[in-house]
Amino acid sequence: MDIQRRLLKFVIYSNWVLFIVTAGVGLVYAPAEVTKGIICGGLIVILNFHLMYRTLRKSFVPPHVSSLAVVLAKSYVRFVISGIILFFLISRHYVHPLGLFIGLSIVVVSIFFATVCELKKITFEEAL
């Protein structure tokens, strides 16, 4: 169970670090629409990640164990709301799609970094 907590802590921390770094780089080097896309996309995906974590944590911890249907319903509602927000951001030209793509990739990059760090740690522990 220790590895799961360590990975989760790393991903949550690196989500915010990557968000701040990408938003900062966007503020310095990118046009305003791209920067707004990075910030909006990053906030949307980080909020979704935290809500998913909360839903799953509450669903599998007794005494309030939820059914699979409840977990899936919450996921679909979150997905639809995110889709509507993204639709309005892009269709009204509030953000640039490239910036939105970069912002929405923050959690994926965090999970990738966490996986690489953990594999490196496991590999070097086995080598010793």
What would you say this structure looks like, in words?
- It is a single chain.
- α2 (32-60) packs antiparallel against α3 and α2 (32-60) runs parallel beside α4 (97-104).
- This protein is mainly alpha-helical and 128 residues long.
- The protein has one domain (2-127).
- The protein has helices at residues 2-29, 32-60, 68-91, 97-104, 106-127.
Produce the secondary structure layout.
Layout: H1 2-29, H2 32-60, H3 68-91, H4 97-104, H5 106-127
Helix pairs in contact: 1-2, 1-5, 2-3, 2-4
Radius of gyration: 17 Å
Coarse morphology? flat
Average residue pLDDT: 92
Strand content: under 5%
Tell me the count of domains. 1
Secondary-structure element order, N to C:
HHHHH
Specify the number of helices. Answer: 5
Helix coverage percent of residues? over 70%
Q: For the terminal residues, how far apart are their CA atoms?
A: 23 Å
List low-confidence stretches.
none
Describe the sheet with the most strands: none
Total E-strand runs = 0
Class by helix and strand content?
mainly alpha
